[in-house]
């Protein structure tokens, strides 16, 4: 392990829990996620799936995590996906096309829901 750290020019550091000097990265991530969840609350983003089930903020946490990992971070100028996996994450909108044919109603309603969520996200970023 020591040779691996020398090869990459890194240093393995252990830190105490709740130590203010070493807790900054976790605190920044938590602050960003709180802001993301807060934006969903401020616009009251709820959606119903094809079965009529209403989703709330708890069901959006995996999507928020995906958005966080797919966003470019100011400190590294990279996404977390690139840093973790060496490539960008494939996002749902990557597979959506304008010439989408309605084969499955569920997929089509998911596409509509994604479009609404994207418009809300753009509106949030503009505020």
Automatic annotation (TrEMBL):
Q: Cite the GO molecular-function annotations of the record.
A: nucleic acid binding
Q: Which InterPro entries match?
A: RNaseH-like_sf, RNaseH_sf
Highest taxon listed in the record's lineage:
Eukaryota
* Protein name as it appears in the record: Integrase catalytic domain-containing protein
